Amino acid sequence: MADSKSTSPADLADCFFHNLHTQVRPGDHLVVALSGGVDSVVLLHLLTQFSKSMRLNIAAVHVEHGISAHSGQWSDFCQTLCDSLSVPLSIHRLTIRKRPQESLEAVAREARYQIFKTIRADYVVLAQHQDDQVETLLLQLLRGAGVKGLSAMPAIRSLKSDKAARLLRPLLNIPRSGILNYARLHGLSWVTDESNLDTSYDRNFLRHRILPFLEQRYPAYRKTLSRSVRHLGEAAHLLDDLAKIDAEAALIAGKLSLPVLQKLEPARARNLLRYLLAQYMVRLPGSAKLEEILRQLNSVQSDNHFRFIVDTLEIRCHRGEWVEFIPADSLPGPMTPVVWQGEPRLVIESMKGVLEFTQRHNQGIDLAKLNQQTVTIRSRSGGERFQPDCKRPRRSLKKILQEAGLAPWEREALPLLFCGDQPVWVAGIGIDCNFQVSAGSAGLVVTWHTNLASQFSTC
Length: 459
Description:
By secondary structure, the protein is α+β, with helices and mostly antiparallel strands. It has helices at about 10-25, 40-55, 70-85, 105-115, 130-140, 145-150, 175-185, 200-215, 220-250, 260-265, 265-280, 285-300, 365-370, 395-405, 410, and strands spanning about 30-35, 55-65, 90-95, 125, 155, 165-170, 250, 255, 305-310, 315-320, 320-325, 340, 345-350, 355-360, 365, 375-380, 385, 395, 415-420, 420-425, 430, 440-450. The chain has a six-stranded mixed β-sheet, with helices on both faces. Strands 7-8-11-10-9 form a five-stranded antiparallel β-sheet. A hairpin with a 3-residue loop joins strand 20 (about 420-425) and strand 21 (about 430). Helix 5 packs across helix 8. The relative contact order is 0.08.
């Protein structure tokens, strides 16, 4: 592309169409993230220009953060604009509050991306451009980011959910000046966020105080630094390839072998951890925190129950053998005992699972014995004794679960069925000897379905 100051609207349109055509296919559903600012207004205008020839289904989404006193006016502007273009618009109104040690800008961005994850489309299209890319690179450099962080924003990436749209940035190699030229030529209107002039924000400080001086000495800095971003992106891709090789040797059934991790040289171990954490789309830890995670993992003993929190993910270690990455929202909460009154199905929300009850002849729990006292479903409280094998003595349930290889957090996710005070059935383990159905009797088969662990099954 030519120098940023000579980018014509025609050049911009051609470049945009090329970028779009490399990713988007006829019939795709695209949702524009519309703030009302000049960048997103130009993006929407460009997409509507090409939507007919490319047979695209265009819609827009606007997030009203409620930070500015003018946010309601911006929502109205976006609605009027979309109405004039016959583009469907969804508006999400939020209340954003600053969290300790986090900028308001970061909290607002996270809130937007949470909404993007819920959108059902082929792409959510963002208006970030070449100047944004350069600013992101410099901010990451000042934060001491690694190669992945310095590769800044990719032109396309997936969100956490498999069903969610992918993010598409077709303006990344187009400078802000070109976008402004296009907007003026086509007589477009847009809103201006007054916070964009506030140099107390790091990005605005770079934009208004530092980069103008840099441009005086290095007029082509945007293209040069964008080229560096591409090089860093290639390096990050190669590091991911190396991590995939290490993961093939270290991962078994989604669990990371701690002995294999400990044998890797530190740089490769850090690279593997970053790669695995990135698969969960969490905010990656800084260098110091990553070093601390590795230090603790390298000193884990067989009886040490390791637990480390990274953003919304828990890293757990069991028996000094396996490391697991568990989304915090998938872990069970405290369970209030539930009385079973003959329902064929019980949803246990706190344990994120469903119990199903099926009557069968000669199978399962002896119904006649079960009906003698109140039947409740609850979690372990400690001290329970259980005898799933009639040829072995009654033993501590905790010991039985340990022998089954269940980690402590998996044990807490198990529902138990009690008849009075006697444990009758334990998910994934079996039925107590005293309650197993005898030949010729009616039985009850209990099945536990959960997303947390596939090994919990019918008993």
